Amino acid sequence: MASGVATVWLPVKDMKRALSFYGDTLGLEVKKETDEWSELDANGLMIGLNARESSGADGSGGALLTFQPDGGIEDEVSRLRGEGVSFVGDISDHPWGRIATFKDSEGNDLQVYEPPSA
């Protein structure tokens, strides 16, 4: 089960342009900035800007909700598959954590996220 929303992230094609829009135009505070991943504070909600990794989301654009499961990511992926949920690829490993992308009932991309182990 999901314990809450871990983040909302948006796929971006041009990180500098996106940071200018969200930071300068909208006035959100930039908390982290890299070429591949940046984070903004939206009144306590972290918004991530993702430079469209090749695995995971299909790259068609749009916001993505990322949920943090109560247990491990493998258990949650297994549970969701048992409920008939269809995943887009396998669990992907990154220095900042692990993700698995799936579709909701309407075809929107969602993810489960597991932070890196300490």
Q: How does this model look, in words?
A:
It is built from two helices and eight strands, in the order βαββββαβββ. The chain is an alpha+beta fold and about 120 residues long. The protein has one domain (about 1-115): 2,3-Dihydroxybiphenyl 1,2-Dioxygenase, domain 1 (Roll). About 20% of the residues lie in helices and about 45% in strands. The longest helix has 11 residues, at about 15-25. It is elongated, with a radius of gyration of 14 Å. InterPro entries: Anthracycline_SecMetBiosynth, Glyas_Bleomycin-R_OHBP_Dase, Glyas_Fos-R_dOase_dom, VOC_core. It comes from Mycolicibacterium obuense.
Range of strand content: over 45%
Task: Determine the number of helices (DSSP H or I, runs of at least 4 residues).
Answer: 2
Counting structural domains, the number is 1
Order of strands across the widest beta sheet? Answer: 2-3-4-1-5-8-7-6
For the biggest sheet, the summary is: 8 strands, mixed
Q: What is the H level of CATH, i.e. the homologous superfamily?
A: 2,3-Dihydroxybiphenyl 1,2-Dioxygenase, domain 1
Q: What name does CATH use for the topology?
A: 2,3-Dihydroxybiphenyl 1,2-Dioxygenase, domain 1
CATH class: Alpha Beta
Q: Report how far the terminal alpha carbons are from each other.
A: 22 Å
Quaternary state of this entry equals single chain
Alpha-carbon Rg, integer? 14 Å
Count the E strands: 8
Broad structural category: alpha+beta
Gross geometry: elongated
**Unreliable segments (pLDDT under 50, ≥5 consecutive)?**
none
Name given to the CATH architecture: Roll
